[in-house]
Design brief:
Elements (H helix, E strand, L loop, with lengths): L6 E4 L3 H12 L4 E4 L7 H4 L3 E2 L2 E2 L4 E2 L3 H19 L4 E9 L5 H7 L9 E5 L2 E10 L1 H14 L16 E4 L19 E9 L8 E3 L2 E7 L2 E5 L18 H11 L8 E10 L8 E4 L6 E5 L5 H18 L21
Parallel strand pairs: 1-2, 1-9, 6-11, 9-16
Antiparallel strand pairs: 3-8, 4-5, 6-8, 7-8, 10-13, 10-14, 11-12, 12-13, 15-16
The chain binds flavin-adenine dinucleotide.
The site of flavin-adenine dinucleotide has 42 residues, from helix 1, helix 2, strand 3, strand 10 and strand 14.
């Protein structure tokens, strides 16, 4: 990058906000361009951070780096901003019969053993998990950027070519002419805040659903996945899948049968073919960069991915060449 050039971070979701703090922390002249949207993933996210995921508790990408890194990052950020955005937890996880053998193996594997212990034949405890209050983190960042005069309008960038532009607009980038070469496979998702007579003591995952207690009478339940998304501006109606899932979970006595839905949150996960993060420079355009593809693991991946991006941005060294936009560019978009 050219010395002393200003940087505009486009999109103030989790990725853009983590990037904003990281650039600021390293003394860059950074601005945030944020426009609120209906389906920002960060506004719908439950904020669960877990080292193991999926029905067989597979380790997430770069788990041994991303997990300690993200705990460190959120602890430091919480201290800096003085807002309770980070809560370390152990996550209870129920496993179905067909996946038990695979999950049992994780108990003795060197990589996964420190992150898991067994509570009963079908229930495990995942360690090094956390809850991140993404909404508060983003709101605080926007306010802070505004207070220091670092919040700018995206249109003011067009006339200036001195900026490095780092596009963090998540799934909204699928509409961008210059970034459409990335193979977006965005997934729409919903979760519900329900009212119950008695809530849970702690977060848990069962049958593919996450349940997070909010207070004594409220619980978050989610999330759905819908994969046929190619337009973030369209209006998506609430599916019945979530309601059906909540009634099934109540039948399993995870909470009482006297539940009512209070609120539904929906968003579009930024997913790129391969379902891994993509970060770095545009393959053909100068001063255009992106960080995208954080999918359903934004809380765990954002701090590490941003750090890797910063190293690349500042020193031109990339430890993950397969994660560069160029390596993920679709052939038919070779020229923009
Ligand atoms: C229902 C649901 C539940 C989830 N639960 C979890 C979970 O428990 N744990 C987890 O780790 N992840 C979860 N996720 C995924 C997580 O939310 C994402 O990985 C993360 O929020 C991605 O952040 P992002 O900043 O890359 O994208 P986004 O949050 O989509 O941010 C993009 C931002 O760009 C802004 N923008 C768009 N267009 C413009 C423009 N023209 N100018 C300026 N700004 C613009 C948008 O308003 C938005 O704020 C969930 C996602 C959904 C949808």
């Amino acid at each position: 990058m050219s010395e002393n050039a200003s940087i505009a971070v486009i999109g103030g979701g989790l990725t853009g906000c983590v990037l904003f703090w990281s650039l600021q922390g390293r003394g860059h002249d950074v601005y945030l361009c944020h426009r609120p949207t209906q389906y920002a993933a960060s506004s719908a996210s439950m904020g669960l951070l877990s080292p193991l995921s999926g029905p067989r508790l597979a380790p997430i990408w770069q788990m041994t780096s991303t997990i300690p890194f993200s705990h460190q990052f959120y602890t430091a950020l919480q201290k800096k901003i003085g807002e309770p955005i980070y809560q370390p937890i152990s996550l209870k996880r129920y496993i179905s019969d067909q996946n038990r053998k695979q999950v049992e193996k994780r108990l003795s594997m060197r990589e996964t053993a420190p992150y898991i212990s067994q509570l009963s034949s079908d229930c495990y405890l995942i360690h090094e998990a956390a809850m991140i209050d993404i909404t508060s983190l983003c709101q605080y960042t926007h306010q802070y950027a505004d207070d220091i005069g670092a919040m700018i309008d995206i249109d003011s960038l067009n006339s200036s070519d001195e900026f490095h532009s780092i596009d963090c607009r998540g799934a909204y980038m699928m509409h961008s002419e210059i970034w459409s070469g990335l193979g977006f496979r965005a997934a729409f998702g919903e979760n519900a805040i329900i009212e119950v007579t008695h809530t849970l003591n702690a977060p848990l995952q069962s049958h593919g659903w996450t349940l997070i207690p909010i207070d004594q009478h409220q619980l978050w339940v989610g999330s759905t996945y819908r994969w046929d998304i190619d337009d973030c501006e369209q209006r998506y109606d609430t599916s019945s899948e979530l309601e059906e899932a909540i009634s099934q979970l109540a039948k399993k006595q995870l909470f009482d049968s006297n539940w009512t839905i209070k609120h539904i949150k929906s968003g579009i996960r930024p997913i790129i073919e391969g379902r891994l993060p993509v970060f770095g420079p545009h393959p053909y355009l100068k001063r255009q960069w992106t960080i995208n593809g954080l999918g359903s693991k934004g809380t765990a991946w954002a701090p590490y991915v941003v750090d890797q991006f910063m190293t690349l941005f500042e020193t031109n060294v990339c430890a993950h060449p397969k994660r560069l936009p160029k390596a993920n560019w679709r052939n038919e978009h070779k020229k923009v």
